[in-house]
Amino acid sequence: MVRVGDRLEISWFEGMTVGDLVDRVPGGHDCAAVRVNGRIVARPNFHRTPVPDGARVHLVPMIAGG
């Protein structure tokens, strides 16, 4: 299992990447980066960064301001 934020758990599978995880999280495509076990992963690296079983993941939203 992978814990996303404080409430959501996603089933882990062999070879899972951050991109796979984002595809399974509601609203996941709106994030600019993902923190996996404390390590920041930028959007260009989502599909080549593995997610280990038992990972703690936090989605970092895109923020705009002015």
The gist of it:
The protein has one helix spanning 18-24, and strands at 2-4, 8-10, 31-36, 39-42, 56-61. The protein has a five-stranded mixed sheet, with helices on one face.
Topology:
Layout: E1 2-4, E2 8-10, H1 18-24, E3 31-36, E4 39-42, E5 56-61
Parallel strand pairs: 1-5
Antiparallel strand pairs: 1-2, 3-4, 3-5
What report would you give on this structure?
By secondary structure, this protein is mostly beta strands. It has a single domain (2-61), classed as Ubiquitin-like (UB roll), CATH 3.10.20.30. The protein has one helix and five strands; from the N terminus they run E-E-H-E-E-E. It has one helix at 18-24; strands spanning 2-4, 8-10, 31-36, 39-42, 56-61. A five-stranded mixed sheet has the order 2-1-5-3-4, covered by helices on one side. Strand 1 and strand 2 form a beta hairpin. The radius of gyration is 11 Å and the shape is globular.
Q: Rg from C-alpha positions?
A: 11 Å
Distance between the termini: 39 Å
Biggest sheet layout: 5 strands, mixed
Q: What is the CATH architecture annotation?
A: Roll
Order of helices and strands: EEHEEE
Low-pLDDT stretches: none
* Overall morphology: globular
> What is the typical, i.e. mean, pLDDT?
93
Q: What name does the CATH topology carry?
A: Ubiquitin-like (UB roll)
CATH structural class = Alpha Beta
